[in-house]
Amino acid sequence: MITLSKIARYYTSGLQKSWVLRDMTLDVQQGEFLTIMGPSGAGKSTLLNIIGMLDQANQGEYLFFDEPVHKLKEKKRHELHKHYMGFIFQAYHLIDELTVYENIETPLLYRKIKKEERQSRIADLLDRFNMVAKKNLFPHQLSGGQQQLVGIARAIVSNPKLLLADEPTGNLHTSQGKVIMDLLKSLHTEGMSIIQVTHSEKNAGYGTRIIEIEDGFIRKDMPL
Amino acid sequence: MITNYLKIALRNLIKLKGFTALNILGLSIGIAASILIIQFLRTELKVDKHHVDLANLYRVNTAFTVGGKETQTATSPSPLAWTMVNDFPEVYQSTRLLKPPGVNQFLIKFEEKSFFESKTYFVDSTFFEVMTYDFVESSPAGAIKEPFQVVISSLIANKLFGGQAALGKSIEISSQWGADQYEITGVYESSGLPSHIDGEIYINMRSGAIGRTFYDLDEWAGNNLYLTYLKLHPQADPSGLESKFPDLVEAKAGERMRTLGFSKSHFLEPVKDIYLKSKVSYQVGPQGNQSMVNILGIIALFVLIIACINFMNLATAKATLRTKEVAVRKVVGASRKILSGQFMIETILYSFIALICSFLIAYLVLPWFNHLAGRTIQLDIFHDKSLLLWTVAILFFTAILAGSYPSLYLSSFSPLNILRGSAGKGITAKKIRKILVITQFIISIGLIQGILIIQNQLEFVRSKNLGFNSEEKVVIPLNTPESAIKYQVLKNDLLADPNILFVGGSSTVPGQVNLNDGLYYGEGQDPSNNVHANINWVDPDYLTLMGFNLDEGRFFSQDRIADTVSSTIITEKMVASLGYSLDDVIGKNLYWTWDGITRKRKIIGVVDDFHANSLHKEVGNQIFFWSTTENPGYLVASVETGEINNLIGKMETTWQKHVLSDPFEFYFLDDRLQSAYETDQRMGSLIFAFTLLAIFISCLGLFGLAAFAAETRRREIGIRKVLGASVSGIVSLLSKEYLFLVILAILIATPLAWYFMTKWLSNFHYHIELSVFTFIVAGFVGLLIALITVGFQGLRAAGSHPVEAIKSE
Questions:
Q1: What are the boundaries of each domain within chain B?
Q2: Contact assessment for residue B394 and residue B35, using Cβ atoms and an 8 Å cutoff
Q3: Nearest CB to B4 within list A94, A102, A158
Q4: Least CB-packed of A198, B19, B469, B491 within 10 Å?
Q5: Which of A49, A55, A106 sits opposite B332 (nearest CB)?
Q6: In terms of DSSP bridges, do strands B567-571 and B597-607 run parallel, antiparallel, or are they unpaired?
Q7: What structural domains does chain A harbor?
Q8: What are the pLDDT digits (tens) for A186-206?
């Protein structure tokens, strides 16, 4: 599904280039549950953002389902991102002014999905996550775990092929974290490809493959 | 989708109540001001636009050249109208309007009701065929076809008959020319179709003594008393027609004008331009003011722009709070186009709310605005379709101007950095916001400079030495022969009251149009080298009581009866015009030649020049003759104003004792003179009011911005306080950047204001000189207002508890 070859990413400040990723080469198959690990500043999130098409590499090639992403125009890349990616964040990033229901609905609006279809999809998810009673609450009325559940619901409501999770349990208590990880696991079992960034060995244990990166290179790549 | 946008917009609006209120208040005031001004301008531009065949309607004006100086009048000689129809194929129809000379008011009587009406004109029977009026009784075709027929306005009809039908009723109209009975043959609606002709009563010109004298007066050179209106054929070329005038004037009046010592030419003025653009003298109705229309139009635009800038500033400042939302929406699939669309819809929502508020505001202040503008403007959004269109236009103008930048700006955020957690820091639109703030202050400071200059000039006008004393003077017009012949009796009776110090009589008083004039020359000069002067026929007491300042010689003396026939008093300017010098003018003669006969009068006194007209016009030559007939046009009483109402009551009693036929009328001389500046004063107050608004809106925006700046710098301020910064240090930290902006604005505004105010002042022949000091004061005021606004926020920020501020991060 994903083929990265010799991907590099740097930031220029003044005359200096500070390299975040160098020579990153990686293949990810459909149906994998990949964990990216590594110390702070190793470039984990940058890699995730490049895969998620929120960011672009300075060098190297990126093929997504054989589409050369690095050559695509902004508009086309936006289309790919819109149709194939779902994102989950450490800080949930729900829109504060929208209710649970409306937050989950937002991606569907941008995909011009009909109202009945939206209602049924959201109802299914709310039902599955046991959040039906909370659908009219605002994010600040929810616990962190519940907010992240909404975050996941929002990420998967548009049926993406790939779910990208940046430290999804980083802000949560252990018990709440477990609920989220179990959920990701069962999504994976149902066929979703997942790439997560985490510091936690335990969370990494939910996946099928771990890569460790340091100083912009892949140090270890091991299937579980 | 749109419901989703509206939902989030409304929730944001409620969440940031204070901000929203600032934003909407500023926008509403801006829109309200524009709506009011637009309505005002529309009523001004509507004048005369209703006439049928407006494009073909012209007035024939006259340009006189006397002694090398040109004056233009709206009037022309009597035979011009019919000659043009007969001789020039371009002219389809013509009509004349006459304001009989020397008659300021007519007495209107019906049964026991009577009142004076000055807006009474004698017109040709074709008048209502050329000019369009909205007849409510009868029709233009049947009206004033015969002598002693009259058409009146619904206002007069109501006054006379109180709602009953006026058609066919007979009323008496009288003046010093005598009294006659007139049949009402038409009534037209007073309100609705505004015209540059302010008439309320139109009389067939062939009626009575005035008709006998003026209707077919065959005089081409002098007696330019008539307003001549032409309706041209649609395909006629007005400039081609104009080119035929010189030959006509030469053929009919050339020789006679040379004998009399002047020349003249005629030119056409389109009726559609008369109200706002005509500069000629002797109009029949109040003139509009093109520059007032322009200035107010610009101000309306300015106020709206200022309000929009506010909106932009506050919206972009507020944007820092929306960065997360934008980023998240982008991540879940929103494109930039969709996002800017969302923010545009928000702006439209804001504008729409502001529009509703602005109508409430506009309705509330409408009476006050009408009072200032001296108009009766209406805001009937449900029936006035153009107002509705204008409103929609304003809505879109505002939404696009105010919304475009914020929506582009907001939608441009890149989601990456924002979602890392350090949400929104460092994302500002500072530069643009600075430019916008400068623009606001350029406008505000420019307007402050403008009003200071206008107020100074109006004060100058009020306090200028006019060459006579206008205070504590009661003027009683003697409009009819019945009252004029009672002058001496009235004078004696009035003087019996100890509060009435002097009583005098004159053919004219300052502030009144004086048609009494002549052409004069000095000793040893050629009669053709003459100068124009206005004649004041007075009794000796008038000169003393008016306080004319005697430079040389003496006033008329009751002891020297020869003064009545052989003496004259002239003004300083006249001395120079005649080629005399002040030292030896006394005893020299004033000459004039009329119809080949030369007459002279000995100059016995010289008085200071005085302003018989407003300060818009240059002082003219004036001469005084002792009136030999005992019927002056005006009785002027110099009074003690201590118990003025009581005194006026006594004067009325005296009047009623002697003048049985006419109602008592009076005015105060100083009030009447000030009324010449009514348009200027109106403009002054309107600009003043809207300047205050502009400043207020600018301050609202600045207040919001400063609040925002203080809020985003809370942590910095907290740290500085912990490190020992004083309150004043923090206030100046927050105010410094605005100080610079305002100074820059002053530098840009000053030359602009200088240019426009010089233009406005050129309307006055006598005006103040622009001084740098005024501009400095205005700049200082602007600066002060800005610093108070910003400093207030600074104080608040400086007063907050530092520990909380630091902890909050």
A1: 1-47+288-428, 56-277
A2: yes
A3: A102
A4: B469
A5: A106
A6: parallel
A7: 2-223 (3.40.50.300)
A8: 999 999 999 999 988 899 999
